[in-house]
Design a protein that fits this description.
disordered N terminus, membrane, mainly alpha
Length: 541
């Protein structure tokens, strides 16, 4: 059994697989005590470093953070390396607790928020990936490619006129269909519970007693770790008036200030963006929870198309659609990051209050430091030119997309809207069948795939699905051989593989536009002898 000291190296015995028992006797600090000066000092350093590096990569290459390098993984690796270095030189008199680490991670992620997964996802999710890869790249995309020149112009695969238009609209339709179903289902369950409570009890239970009863029912039957984590997480809940008031306040300020800065958009456009943002937030957060992949860029392109068609070319729709879509993405990305941070808080017994305050402070620091870094790069010679070091290729591609969006639905390829309606209905039908199966206890719901996971291969590539299935196979074999060992060791192994892959993605982006000092080429012996003979012949002529 652990001694209760942070950093103790005691191992789990064969009869237990509890993580929290290793920390028995360690007092969990209150949420105010988790917000220390060293937390924000270290976050400022690491967040500044990440902002400079990631903005440089974004301006030099078509670097998309959400698709290539999860910032949370990289920021956590840099954060741990920095704190370990300070600890080695003796600048940290008291060890940093895991609650402080979670708050720092949230702060850094808010600052720089501009084979492994298959080991931590259920088997049905991996099968959904594989099924989506087979359907998309095995049948659907080859079929659409055969219609090139008929349904859409030839040579337009990377624009909304061509195959890319199908990708953006159809993927967004699947995500919106899945998210819409769960929003409606959540609302219906909530109203049903309210009706049943009022019907059976006949009187209103005091709020504190009702919350205690719900918390007791929630933790009943859980393991020791989940029981303790759930109690600690629910202890410091965030008041609902603060959530609603903060959303209304930021929406009102944005609706007034943004049209003043960009006259191409009107307050109604920003208000509409804020009204649709909660629905898209729910859809994206649900997708991140299932697949660990954020579709914020896809929703951003979808928003460009909607607002560009609404505003129109003559009314400044190019810049207006870019501004409105930026508002949508700026609201969505921190929301999905916050859901992941809440899971981190749950796993480390960190207060959700301290975590959300840490992310808010990190975002505020990023709002100051980010524009300063961009202004530094903006003053470099030939900024934005195609042949310069900082070509900002993403800016040109999004501008082209906004120009096309102002032309309305005519820019889309043939049958795109009809297919989008079908793709919107598919997740609705699958989820209805799943819920009916659960209510009838037929067991069919366990074999119905997740439409969100199926949509990822449609949007990126099918090799990701193969990686997930291989990781899931490793998980299955590991659990079959030693279930206790897998329960404890699978998460750190998967995290290590994820961090290693992210480090290589980060390094490869640095050397993308670099010119090698020498060139090496390998020949077979016969080819080399022919090359040498031709070289000697040319030199003697």
């Amino acid at each position: 059994m652990a001694t209760g000291k942070v950093g103790d190296s005691s191992r789990l015995t064969g009869d237990e697989h509890s993580i929290e028992r290793l920390f028995e006797g360690v007092e969990v600090p209150e949420w105010k005590d988790q917000l220390t000066l060293r937390v924000f000092g270290l976050s400022l350093f690491v967040g500044s470093l990440l902002t400079i590096i990631l903005m440089r990569l974004n301006l030099m290459t078509f670097f998309v953070l959400n698709a290539t390098l999860p910032s949370s993984t990289f920021s956590f690796a840099v954060l741990k390396a920095w704190t370990m270095a300070l600890d080695k030189v003796g600048l940290l008199t008291n060890p940093i607790t895991r609650q402080e680490t979670a708050v720092m991670q949230s702060c850094v992620l808010g600052f720089a928020s501009i084979v492994y997964y298959g080991m931590i996802c259920p088997h049905i999710v991996a099968i959904s990936y594989l099924l989506g890869g087979i359907l998309s790249w095995g049948f659907f995309w080859p079929f659409l490619q055969s219609k090139e020149g008929i349904w859409y112009p030839s040579g337009k695969n990377q624009s909304l006129h061509g195959l890319y238009g199908y990708k953006v609209l159809l993927t967004s339709a699947v995500l919106l269909g899945e998210g819409s179903f769960h929003i409606v289902a959540f609302a219906l369950r909530m109203f049903q519970e309210m009706y049943l409570k009022k019907k059976h009890k006949g009187f209103i239970v005091p709020l504190n007693e009702q919350r205690k009863s719900e918390d007791t029912n929630l933790v009943a039957g859980l393991s020791y770790d989940d029981n303790l984590r759930t109690k600690m997480f629910l202890k410091d809940h965030i008041p609902t008036p603060i959530i609603i008031g903060g959303f209304l306040l930021t929406g009102t300020i944005s609706s007034v200030v943004i049209p003043f800065i960009f006259p191409q958009v009107e307050p109604i456009h920003i208000a509409a963006a804020y009204l649709v943002a909660p629905i898209l937030n729910f859809c994206n957060a649900y997708g991140v929870g299932i697949s660990d992949f954020s579709f914020s860029p896809a929703y951003g392109k979808f928003a460009i198309f909607i607002f560009g068609s609404w505003i129109g070319m003559t009314q400044g729709g190019v810049l207006g659609s870019l501004v409105a879509s930026s508002v949508v993405v700026a609201v969505m990305s921190p929301a999905s990051d916050l859901m992941q941070n809440f899971k981190l808080a749950y796993m480390t017994l960190t207060s959700p209050r301290s975590l959300i305050i840490g992310q808010a402070i990190g975002t505020a620091m990023g709002c100051v430091f980010g524009p300063l870094v961009f202004y530094f790069f903006y003053r470099t010679p030939n900024f934005g030119d195609p042949g310069s070091d900082y070509s900002a290729g993403n800016a040109r591609s999004y501008r082209s997309l906004a120009i096309l969006a102002t032309q309305g639905s005519e820019v889309l390829p043939r049958h795109c809207l009809s297919l989008a309606v079908i793709f919107f209905l598919v997740p609705l039908i699958l989820n209805i069948v799943k819920e009916l199966s659960k209510s009838m206890n037929s067991g069919i719901h366990r074999y119905i795939p997740y439409p969100v996971a199926m949509a990822i291969p449609f949007y990126i590539s099918a090799n990701f699905a193969l990686d997930v299935c291989i990781g899931n196979l490793v998980l299955y074999v590991w659990k079959w051989m030693d279930r206790r060992s897998a329960a404890v060791n699978v998460p750190p192994v998967a995290a290590g593989l994820l961090a290693g892959d992210c480090m290589w993605s980060f390094a490869s982006q640095f050397i993308t536009n670099q010119v090698p000092p020498i060139c090496v080429r390998f020949f077979s012996r016969d080819a080399y002898m022919r090359f040498q003979g031709n070289l000697i012949k040319n030199l003697t002529v």
